[in-house]
Amino acid sequence: MYSTIFSKVIFPTLELIMRRHITSTAAKYASLQYQPYEQLKARQEAKMRRLMHHAFDNVPFYREKFKQAGLKPEDIQTIEDLTRLPVVTKEEIRANFPHQVTASNIVRQRRIPAWTSGSTGESLDFYLDSLSRDSRAAAFTFFNSWAGVRNGDKGLHLGLGYPRTFIQKAFGLVARQHYIASLSMDKDNVIKVCSQLAKMKLDFIEGNAFTISWIASVAKHNNIKIRPEKAVISTMEILLSKQLLEDAFQCPVLNRYGNREVGGALVQNCPESDKMHVNTELCILEIVDEEGNTCAPGWGGRIVLTDLNNWVMPFIRYDTEDGAIAGEPCPCGRTLPVVENLEPRLTWYIQTPSGKTISSRALGGFLFKMRDYMTHFVRFQVVQKSPSEVTFNFVPLQSITQELLSRLNDDLQLLLGTEVNLVVNAVDDIPLTPSGKLVIIKSELEPRAIG
Ligand SMILES: [Zn+2]
C-alpha cells in the first residue's frame, strides 16, 4: 500500500519539485526493452554520432585520438565504425585528467567529481555529467522492476558508508530505505547484523557482491532466516555464486554489473534466463579481442564501454579491464543485447605453468558449488607472484580444524595442479581496496586474454 502511494503520488511530486525525470525515463527504458534490436541500435548510434562530434570539437584527448587514427567524426556512423577508434585505457585517462579529457564547452556546474580505485590500487579521478543523473537513477528503477521492486518498497542498502547529506537522509526515511555501512562490518558483528536483518520485514536487500555473499553464508551457517519479500540485488563486483544467495535468502537474485566511470546500472541478469542484458540507453558495450576487434557470439574478450550520457567528460571505447563472452539473443523476448560469463579484471586470474587460467568466478564456483566451503569463509584472496607460487589466504568464519585445512589444501592443489607450490593461510583480515572492493585474485603476472 505504502509503495503504491509512494511510487504513484509522493515520488512523482518530489520529482516535480526537484525537476527530475526518473519515473518517465524508467518507463521509457521499460517500453524499449522489447522493441526490435535495430531500433535500439539506431537510438544508440544517433547519440553516438553527436558524441563523436562533441568529443572531437571540445575534448583535446579525443581530438588527438581521431587524428592519430586518420579519422573525422563523420567517419563514425555506426557501432561497427567505432572499432576504428582505439581503445582507451584507465592509465591514459589518469595521465590526461582533468584538462585534456574534460569538455571545454560545458559549464563547470555540470561536473560531478567522482573517483574509483584502479586494479592495482591507484585511484582515478573523473567527472560525471549532472545532466545524466536522471538516466542513471532511472536505470536502477528499471532494473529493479524486473523483480517487481518499486520506489517506496522497504529496502536495505549495504553501502560503503560514505557520509550522506541531510536531504539524502530525509529522502531515505520517506522512501523507507535503510543503510548499513558494509565497511563497518567485521566477523564479530556480522551475526548481529544478520539477526537484525531477519527481524526486518524487507522487500529487498541491495549491496556489493562480496558483502551480500558474506551475509548469505553467515545466515545459512547459523540458520538465520533473512527473507526479503521480492529480491536480493548484488552490485559492484562480479557475483561468484548466485546459487548461494538464492539458497540463503529464498528469493529471486538480481545480479547487476556497472562501472563507476561509465555511470549507472549497465547490465543485469534476465529474470527468465540468467543471461545478462545490457541497457542500450546508457552505453555501447563492446566485447573486444586483444586487437580491439569485436568478438563474435560465444567468444570472450574485454568489456569496452562508450558512455552515451556523459558530455562533461566523455568515455569513448573505455577499457574496463573486465571480461565477458558475447552472448546469443535471450529467449525471454527482450531485445537488449546479451553478455555472459562476466569476469572481473583480467589480472584477476590464476595462471598455472601448464597454461591453465582460473578466473575468480571459476574459483568461486569450485569452492562454493562443487565443494561447499562458503560456510567456512568470511572472505578469501589468492596471491600469485609467479606461475608456480600461489598463496590462498582466507578469513575463517569460525575456528578451523586441521582436517578442514588439509581438505582445503588438497582441493586447491587438485584444482591448480601439482606443479604449483600452494600455501594456504588462515588470516585475521584481508584488507579491501580504498573504494571498498575485495580483490579476489591478486596477480603480479601479465594478464592473458580469455576466450
Ligand atoms: Zn532475457
Provide a brief overview of the structure.
The protein has helices at about 1-20, 20-30, 35-60, 60-70, 80, 90-95, 135-145, 165-175, 190-200, 210-220, 240-250, 360-370, 400-415; strands spanning about 110-115, 125-130, 155-160, 175-180, 205-210, 230-235, 255-260, 265-270, 275-280, 285-290, 300-305, 320-325, 340-345, 350, 355-360, 375-385, 390-395, 420-425, 440-445. The chain is α/β, with parallel strands linked by helices and about 450 residues long. The chain has a domain at about 350-445: GMP Synthetase, Chain A, domain 3.
Q: Biggest sheet, in brief? A: 11 strands, mixed
Tally of extended strands? 19
CATH class of the domain at 349-443: Alpha Beta
Task: Quote the CATH topology of the domain at 349-443.
Answer: GMP Synthetase, Chain A, domain 3
CATH architecture of the domain at 349-443: 2-Layer Sandwich
Amount of beta strand: 15-25%
Task: Please give a structural write-up.
Strands 4-3-5-6-7-8-9-13-12-11-10 form an eleven-stranded mixed sheet. Helix 13 links the parallel strand 17 and strand 18. With 451 residues, the protein is an alpha/beta fold. Helix 2 packs across helix 7, helix 3 packs across helix 4 and helix 10 packs across helix 11. It has a domain of 95 residues: 2-Layer Sandwich (GMP Synthetase, Chain A, domain 3), CATH 3.30.300. The mean pLDDT is 88. The chain is built from 13 helices and 19 strands. The radius of gyration is 22 Å and the shape is globular. It is 33% helix and 24% strand. The site of zinc ion (ZN) has 8 residues, from loops.
